[in-house]
Design goal:
heterodimer; A: alpha+beta; six-stranded mixed sheet; five-stranded antiparallel sheet; 19 helices; about 40% helix; about 15% strand; globular; B: alpha+beta; 2 helices; 5 strands; about 20% helix
Chain lengths: ~550, ~100
């Protein structure tokens, strides 16, 4: 893993000292809120409905056990004993007090973490495939280049006041687990004639105007990547709209000007700035790559895994849903579900964080990942250790066997915390998960992604949920709109709106009708909800959602 | 015809804790029941200006709509309901003290 250089440490120490002084000046009245707000946002500090919220960046979702333990300590000492992992692979603390925040930032700095550029119109935390470095289907580990981009974009003087926020995601595999087509820039590592390069996708995004990104360049070589990215962000910085916040993201710039026009401008800018990149970035990348060298995988018998599968149905169910193929056949990638039925998606207590850190240290080559689906991953676990890992997880309420199933719901904080929300998300997620747990149906239903956002900004990725739920305020009442057929993978699709919304009381039965309609109509157990939807289209699901309309028409 | 003025309270977040607070005749309270209910539009504007000037104590002051129920202010919108109690997934925030 990357560990800070002296330069990184000094930069962060100075920045934290600056912010400490800014907080002091706010408290003693020297700074007004108007003056202080942009400063606190630059350091990840929001003011939400009930309290401040500190959003901490977890670069490309990678943590060591030491970092995870520190996140637990911070949750206990300065928050309410838990943290919330987000769809951007970050962690949010919901209850810090203003006076404590500088101490929290210093504590984070001890383990090479910070909250810089987790807000504001800057390049945000670079996200990546949470199976990076472990997945069986990977061309190359996306984290070294993600780290290079983090260093390039952090405090980049040209890009501190972009028209709007800017999000970059990287994957090294054909299967897209990082939703790269819904990012301002999505990068996919590709190999062409033995050379590693990047497919560059631009102009994706969710929110008010959801768009699937378009390929700007199908192969940018490794040494051209940073100048190429800089050219894209420069073009956007000049061309992006500053007159209307809702038209300010690069997806609108691409949409209004056309991908060919953007490409021509980027090429022109690239030609101008390319000579300034003398290769230092490539030397840095080489050093970073060494930091991400694969762990020394062990050779040991995998028989304990096979035995446990045979003997314990609960372990087998968990293994079937929560494990993914590792590139070393004796290993597995473990997804720890933060979606226990009825609990808040993405929340982990300090005790749970410590357990996950301990397991990573003992069984997982000291690595953890946070997924955009709000779960925690142990990317490298030897199969022989899986039974021990599972029983330890179970003891701390982390053994839920539901990854990829209907109760593995993405939900934004919604109006329980967020000042922008128009409705709550968390209770809807809790109710759906609880209901399907009662029905004991979810393993029969199979892969089904439900994603819930509490406002049009779509932090809960509802547009790319197989079933998407959007919470709105309709005449002073919470109302939930359903979209169907969305997909956040390499076959990215924006979901289709099904029709009028449902009240908070009616939304869970509506989802249940959808699932029953799927079970009735699927060709066999192998056909997933999304496949059935693609085969049949909206009509049968619409009929299930609005039975009254059918009755009225008859 | 202009819409009739409906009852309001001045609300904000406390600078240090971030907690939801309400203006009283003499200062601030964390409890909506103790808030000063404003029924006159001109008076409400003045009270809001007064609140906005207290930069060293409060952040983001605004007027929130209320109805009067048993002599006490009650939110007319669910957002203010949540602000007055706390999140629904944990017993954190104001509801801890109720």
């Amino acid at each position: 893993m990357y560990s800070y250089t002296e330069f990184d440490e000094q930069f962060l120490a100075e920045r934290n000292a600056q912010f400490r002084a800014q907080v002091e000046r706010r408290i003693d009245g020297s700074l007004t809120e108007d003056e202080f707000k942009p400063l606190r946002l630059m350091n990840g500090l929001y003011l939400q409905l009930h309290a401040y919220m500190l959003r901490v960046a977890i670069p490309y979702g990678t943590l060591s056990s030491r970092q995870m333990r520190k996140l637990a300590d911070i949750a206990e000492r300065w928050d309410r004993g838990y943290g919330h992992f987000t769809t951007r692979q970050n962690i949010q603390y919901n209850w810090p007090e203003l006076r404590d925040v500088p101490d929290m930032l210093d504590a984070l700095a001890e383990v090479n973490l910070h909250a810089i550029q987790t807000s504001g119109n800057t390049i945000r935390n670079v996200t990546a495939d949470h199976f990076a470095g472990a997945a069986a289907d990977e061309v190359a580990d996306p984290r070294p280049v993600a780290e290079l981009i983090r260093q390039w974009s952090t405090d980049h003087p040209e890009f501190q006041f972009l028209p709007r926020k800017f999000k970059i995601a990287v994957t090294g595999a054909e299967a897209d687990r990082a939703v790269i087509k819904a990012h301002d820039i999505g990068l996919r590592i590709v190999e062409r004639d033995g050379e590693i390069g990047y497919e560059v996708v631009v102009g994706g995004g969710l929110g008010r105007t959801p768009m699937i990104g378009k390929v700007l360049n199908d192969f940018v070589s490794q040494d051209d990547l940073l100048p190429y990215l800089e050219a894209i962000v420069s073009v956007y910085n000049l061309l992006g709209r500053r007159d209307n916040k809702y038209k300010a993201r690069i997806k609108i710039t691409v949409h209004e000007n056309g991908i060919d026009d953007i490409r021509a401008r980027v090429e022109e800018r690239f030609a101008l700035i390319r000579p300034r990149f003398t290769g230092v970035d490539q030397q840095m990348l080489a050093r970073i790559e060494a930091d991400f060298a694969a762990p020394a995988f062990k050779s040991a018998p995998t028989a304990p895994y096979d035995r446990a599968r045979e003997q314990y149905p609960a372990f087998r169910a968990w293994a079937d849903t929560n494990l993914a193929a590792h590139r070393n056949p004796d290993y597995a990638i473990v997804t720890i579900s933060l979606k226990a039925h009825g609990k808040t998606p993405g929340d982990a207590t300090a005790a749970q964080m410590r357990l996950m850190a301990d397991l990573a240290k003992r069984y997982g080559h000291d690595e953890l990942r946070i997924s955009h689906e709000q779960n925690v991953i142990l990317p490298h676990v030897h199969k022989g250790d899986l039974p021990s890992v599972y029983s330890a997880l179970q003891a701390e309420g982390l053994g839920t066997a539901n990854v990829g199933l209907i109760s593995d719901i993405i939900a934004c904080p919604g109006m329980d915390y967020c000042a922008l929300a128009t409705a709550r998300s968390i209770p809807i997620a809790q109710d759906i998960a609880t209901r399907f747990d009662e029905l004991k149906l979810e393993h029969d239903v199979g892969p089904l992604k439900i994603k819930i956002s509490g406002c049009i900004n779509a932090c809960g990725h509802h547009h790319v949920g197989h079933i998407g739920i959007l919470g709105l305020d309709r005449a002073g009442v919470e109302n939930y709109q359903i979209t169907l057929g969305g997909d956040g993978t390499e076959t990215a699709t924006i979901g289709e709106r099904a029709g009028p919304g449902f009240s908070a009381d009616d939304i869970v039965p509506a989802v249940e009708r959808l699932v029953m309609a799927y079970l009735d109509r699927r060709e066999d157990r192998e056909e997933t909800f999304l496949q059935t939807y693609r085969r049949l289209g909206l009509a049968p699901f619409k009929a299930a959602l609005y039975p009254q309309d059918q009755a009225d028409a008859a | 015809m202009p819409k009739p003025f409906t009852p309001k309270v001045v609300t904000a977040n406390a600078l240090l804790e971030g907690d939801v607070i309400y203006q009283t005749a003499t200062g601030w309270t964390r409890d909506l029941a103790e808030a000063e209910v404003l029924t006159d539009e001109a008076d409400a504007e003045l009270r809001l200006i007064d609140a906005m000037q207290q930069q060293d104590k409060v952040v983001g002051a605004y007027l929130a709509d209320m109805k009067i129920d048993g002599g006490r202010p009650r939110p007319t919108h669910f957002r203010e309901d949540f602000r007055a109690t706390g999140p629904s997934n944990y017993t954190h925030g104001k509801q801890e003290r109720i």
